[in-house]
Amino acid sequence: MTKKTIIFTGGGSGGHVMPALTLIAKLPGFDIEYIGGRYGIERTLVSSKVSHYHPIFTGKLRRYFSIQNFIDIFKIGLGLLQSFQILILKHRDTIVFSTGGFVSVPVVIAAWLTGKRIYIHEQTTRVGLANKISSKFADKIFVSFEESLKFFPKEKTELSGYPVREDCFSPVSEKMSLEDIDLKKINKPLLLVTGGGNGSKLVNDLIKDSLEELKDNYFIVHQVGKKCIAEYLQFKSDNYIPVDFINENMIEIMKLADIIISRAGAGMVCELMAINKPSVFIPLKIAQKNEQFHNAKEAEQQIGSLVIEEDEISDLNLIKIINKFNNRNTIVREEETFNNGTDYLIRFLNS
After folding, report:
1. What is the mean predicted confidence (pLDDT) over 178-207?
2. 342: which residues sit within 8 A by CB, 6+ positions away?
3. 195, 179, 198, 196: which is closest to 241 by C-alpha?
4. Who contacts 288 (Cβ-Cβ below 8 Å, separation ≥6)?
5. Is the dihedral of CA 266, 128, 122, 3 positive or negative?
6. Are 158 and 149 in contact, with CB atoms under 8 Å apart?
7. How far is CA 231 from CA 201, 204, 210, 235, 261, in A?
């Protein structure tokens, strides 16, 4: 019997790719393919996990005027043509599952033109422009937060929760090493800092400005992003490890960490809520509709995370931020109250 095919799409950032990877790992009975950007982070993360990766041209969707819009409209058109050529050859029962990001729009439109079933998943508390457009063509829309339901047509939208990785609910590995250092045997509290898969200059600078004082009190793992790794390697020491991108071991390090400082992408927020780890969030101010702020406020309400807005950073150094975090109001959340969307979505795809 021929396996049913599911084609995932989504990218531009790790936040759009990780939910797809979580679901892909739980769908061994399907032929899984992926349509993504030629140079996007999704190609690096996904290619080895699927039977075929289809690279297409991508163009960014912007809500503001930019000369680049005129160039990107042609890239989007090429991406649509490429997606159509891929999908027209697929069986009508093929499912297209989009996790958002600008790469997904031409794929979803091509899927609609070729009569495929289309499901989309919105990770954030606010709606990205890509998913807003894609929702017009989708057969079913899934959202991570109840607050997001109001942005989509009621008759085809369901609250599924965010598909967090299974590792969130397993014990920490007996030995958790990073660059040959067993993080379970370090003799200082572990501080994990991340500005997301691509890094954040603001978060990186915050660490750099307080690095010497921090090293006296913490062992620091710092995800700086590919573009910044060369600069930060010069600061590497016995108590400070800068890395460009943490992939497979991120959940393990999160569970071990005593303090986590992060941007507030939906994936990071939901996974920290899943492991019940109150953290310090510095939401990206220019995120669409200030979505990261609203993501972080969910964690503040549920597990007592601290939310520091970018405009507050100039008045605080990192030591003050950590002290403020340590003095926060503690919230105890029952584990079963976390809404994990993985099983929900897998059951739906298998039905």
Report:
1. 92
2. 22, 23, 26, 163, 164, 166
3. 179
4. 63, 126, 128, 129
5. negative
6. no
7. 11, 10, 16, 8, 20
For 76, the token pair is 């989007």
Residue-level pLDDT at 72 = 79
Domains, the chain, in order of start with CATH, read 5-160 (3.40.50.2000), 167-337 (3.40.50.2000)
Q: Give 58 or 331, the one with higher predicted confidence.
A: 58
pLDDT at 63: 60
Structure tokens at 334: 């029952």
Q: CA-CA distance, 57 to 102, in Å (whole number)?
A: 11
pTM of the full predicted structure?
0.82
- For the cut 90, the answer to whether the pLDDT of residue 248 exceeds it is no
Q: How far apart are CA 2 and CA 298, in angstroms?
A: 43
pLDDT of 263 higher than 90: yes
d(CA 162, CA 208): 33
Rg of the chain, C-alpha, whole Å: 20
Question: By the 8 A CB rule, do 260 and 272 touch?
Answer: yes
Structure-token match 């800092």, residue found: 193
The DSSP output letter for 174 is S
